[in-house]
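Backbone shape codes
____________________
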Amino acid sequence: MSTSIGPVGQLVAVLQAQLAARTAPRGGRAATAAASRQPAQQQLAALIEKRVRQIQRDDPQRGRKAFRIFLEAVLLEHFGASLMHDPAFHQVVSEVQDAMEGDPACRRLVDEAIAHLLSQQ
């Protein structure tokens, strides 16, 4: 398992950077914050890889489930793990995933993400 610079770690870093850019106050703290997130990104990537490995290889929804694991993990990391127990959070994740899969431009990126997630197997 390569989490420091592997594909899952790269996906985590990209999504976290996009979330941070949308929610963080403007200022010069971006480089410092990015450096301090590195170990957290590695841990998050390892968690995602572990959960994806638990999906049965013959599951016809394997790719979709892997992408959902990725989305949930990154969003929980960003917005707080306490949301895990909120049914509304899981509904939002489902809606976000459906929207991403339904948009032709996003679908290509989702497919690439799924390929990266499953390449760790």
